[in-house]
Design a protein that fits this description.
The protein has 750 residues and is an alpha/beta fold. It has 27 helices and 9 strands. This is Dynamin family protein.
Length: 750
């Protein structure tokens, strides 16, 4: 199997693992949420509990450190998921400036200094570049820029904080228009802070030369000859006049590598460490942890003599901290850059060998240390071959070890959470004898039966009310009677057109407009509507009648049944609220409360039909005869209109019609005065049948009240029920975490 196929297989095997990591991340977030809920309830309990022992045990429970561990692990899993989701194996080239990193990358890619900056003067690489192999395209670049916000937050803020420059600029305009604060005199160090400050001044002084790039859409596609001006600090001839890189986050270069049998790999060129720009180390760690699979540490010994310096060890430690989960000797090579006598550095072979022999003395542990001329295409290609051979043979093992390290930490999280949960489950002393049987016996006694207790009191109270309403059912309803009297008085005091001071003139005006034949029936219609509306107010009397009766039932349930503790409302609202509290499984009890809640009497249903039949005298339309659709003649007409009919005739007829209607309506309604009492008696009778007399209804009441006993008999069960409820809710929240914290939920294996 060729190398390209091997690398492709490695990348394909990573994809399912990336998907599994995403599932584990979701489970870990769910665990964090469940722990947060337990923590919140713990804080609530600390304010409610009065038992010093329970308070002490609650104070020992804390998930804050676990939450920090989970947050850290979520970050690591994100890096791991990104690592396994990539379409390339990424090799990072790391080293201090002027060590030959860029020359090595030029040799491996056949790109020139125009695309991969190098030089023999100051630092020239300004940003991180990722170089991808694609045999089917001409070389081009993609540039990702900072936004104004990310530039301020990720770059400028670092300088202000590190150099203690005071209040950070909030906007780019503020950074541009205000002079930089002076470097504090008491800042530790001298040369390093000063050099950093000069670097910040470079951002500030040249802002106008690169700030336009913050508004560019990323990525910007650029041609081969444009690449250097976005990644380098100086031109090919060493002039330090390029500033675009200051606005750049990252550059991706796509080109054709000379060795086509390399598969899907990418080379990552990091800016040389040791410059005075802040954030380089942080960006290196971020890149290694997220974007790089393997590292080449490049070091060029001086021909005049050299040694492993502290800065070399620090660079190694910085990189090591990004991949702490992998054995250090598995993910990196040290490349000692060999130069010959013709180079500016001279022949350094002897010093390369010295550093090679002493690399382990400095505890720089890598898979392999070797000497290679980074500027020589042949030697660079052999170096890449060794790296790729190593990766194709070992990458799967490296991935497994990286995953295993995460898996062990996940197991540890699971173990720590379980240990804390075991403590949490014993907050309320489990060894105290369970008094549930004693409590149930006491509740049964209080609830009682037909001979004693709550049930007897409620049943007798409702039966007494039923008897009282039974005696009243044949008597006129006072509420409706007062409403009828008020309506009749209104009809007598205000008779519409008949009470008008200008009645004759108004009637005569209408005769002039539409004739007497229309005027008389039109006024009849108006008076009919007028009288009907006078009795609409009886609807409120009927509603009050029903609500008063319902309140009598409510009073029994509150006084005898102690239900005021669970609802302080009245009438229909009380029954609705109680019905909503009754669980669906208590079907008979729930239906009983719903039925009485919805019971009502209305004017239109009870009274209006009786009134309308006595308003026929105020209409000139008679009933259908049933014979060929004919209309019968109206009997007992008050006025037969003719062309000679006057306004006085019409007014007199209307007064007769009006008085006749009122005089017949009054006795008709009085015949109905007993019906509201009959109706409310029936309503209460049905309610009692539904909630007292049905089969098994006593059992439903008992089961319903069992859940409310702590409220209804608070003097007896209150504290016990509250403690029991707190204990139940606490254990429910703890058990929810237990349910989430299953080891298989955090298994990264396929």
């Amino acid at each position: 199997m060729d190398r390209t196929t091997l690398i492709t297989n490695i990348l394909e095997k990573r994809k399912p693992l990336a998907q599994r990591i995403q599932v584990v991340q979701g489970n870990l977030k769910t665990l964090s949420t469940a722990l947060h809920q337990v923590e919140e309830y713990r804080n609530h309990l600390l304010k409610q509990v009065d038992d010093p022992n329970v308070i002490g045990r609650l104070e020992e429970i804390s998930f804050s450190n676990i939450q920090l561990t989970i947050a850290s692990e979520l970050e690591t899993l994100t890096k791991l998921k990104n690592r396994f989701s990539r379409d390339t194996l990424n090799i990072g080239v790391v080293g201090r400036a002027r060590q030959g990193k860029s020359r090595l990358l030029q040799s491996l890619t056949r790109l020139s200094a125009a695309e991969i900056p190098d030089g023999d003067r100051q630092h020239c690489t300004g940003v991180r570049s990722t170089i991808h192999h694609n045999p089917n395209v001409d070389t081009y670049g993609e540039v990702w820029f900072h936004t104004e916000r990310s530039f301020l937050d990720e770059v400028i803020t670092l300088y202000y904080e590190k150099l203690r420059l005071g209040i950070k600029p909030i906007t780019l305009e503020e950074f541009a228009n205000k002079p930089l604060p002076q470097l504090p005199q008491d800042i530790p160090g001298y040369a390093a802070p000063g050099a950093m400050y000069e670097h910040l001044k470079r951002y500030h002084t040249h802002l106008d030369q690169y700030r336009h790039l913050f508004k560019e859409t990323s990525p910007l596609i650029i041609q081969k000859h444009q690449i250097r001006e976005y990644v380098s600090q100086d031109t090919l001839d060493g002039q330090r006049i390029l500033f675009n890189y200051l606005a750049v986050k990252e550059v991706k270069i796509t080109c054709t590598f000379p060795n086509v049998d390399i598969g899907k790999i990418a080379l990552v060129d990091m800016p040389g460490l040791g410059d005075t720009g802040l954030g380089d180390e942080e960006r290196l760690i971020q890149a290694l942890g997220k974007d790089i699979d393997f590292v080449l540490f490049v070091r060029m010994p001086k021909s005049a003599g050299d040694y492993w310096a502290d800065v070399d060890v620090k660079l190694y430690d910085t990189a090591r901290s990004a991949l702490a989960d992998l054995p250090v000797n598995l993910w990196s090579f040290v490349v000692l850059n060999r130069t010959n006598a013709e180079s500016n550095n001279g022949d350094n072979l002897k010093n390369c060998q010295d550093l090679l022999d002493t690399v382990e003395e400095k505890h720089i542990k890598v898979e392999k240390s070797l000497i290679a001329n980074c500027g020589n295409d042949t030697e660079a290609t052999k170096l890449l071959d060794q790296v790729l051979d190593y990766l194709t043979n070992n990458m799967i093992v490296l991935d497994q070890q990286y995953t295993s390290a995460c898996q062990e930490r996940l197991k540890e999280i699971n173990k720590i959470v379980n240990a804390e949960l075991n403590k949490a489950k014993t907050i309320f002393n489990q060894n105290v004898e369970d008094d549930s049987q004693e409590t149930e016996e006491l509740f049964s006694d209080l609830f009682g039966d037909n001979d004693s207790g709550w049930w007897k009191d409620v049943a007798l109270g409702l039966q007494g009310l039923r008897t009282q309403l039974w005696y009243l059912r044949q008597t006129p309803n006072e509420e409706l009677h007062s409403g009828v009297i008020a309506a009749i008085e209104n009809c007598e005091q205000d008779k519409g057109i008949l009470s008008s001071e200008n009645a004759l003139q108004e009637i005569n005006d209408r005769i002039m407009i539409s004739s007497a034949f229309r005027t008389y029936p039109d006024y009849q219609d108006e008076l009919r509507v007028f009288i009907s509306h006078r009795f609409l107010s009886l609807d409120e009397n009927l509603k009050r009648t029903v609500e008063l009766a319902k309140n009598q039932v409510v009073n029994v349930l509150k006084e005898k049944g102690r239900l005021s503790i669970i609802s302080n409302t009245e009438g229909s609202e009380f029954f609705t609220e109680i019905s909503e509290l009754i669980p669906e499984r208590f079907t008979k009890l729930k239906a009983g409360f719903k039925i009485i809640a919805g019971f009502q009497l209305s004017y239109r249903g009870l009274i209006l039909p009786r009134i309308r039949q006595h308003l026929d005298g105020l209409t000139n339309i008679s009933a259908m005869t049933g014979q060929s659709g004919g209309i019968s003649e109206q009997q007992d007409k008050t006025l037969t209109v003719s062309k000679d009919t006057t306004a006085e005739d019409i007014l007199t007829a209307l007064e007769i019609d009006y008085d006749k209607a009122i005089n017949t309506i009054k006795p008709a309604i009085e015949e109905l005065l007993c019906e509201p009492n009959e109706a409310v008696h029936a309503m209460v009778e049905e309610f009692i049948d539904n909630i007292i007399r049905q089969k098994d209804i006593q059992k439903e009441w008992k089961n319903f009240l069992r859940g409310l006993r702590g409220k209804i008999w608070s003097d007896i069960f209150g504290k016990k029920e509250r403690d029991r409820e707190m204990r139940k809710e606490w254990l429910d929240s703890v058990n929810q975490v237990t349910l989430v914290n299953q080891l298989e939920s955090f298994n990264l294996a396929q």
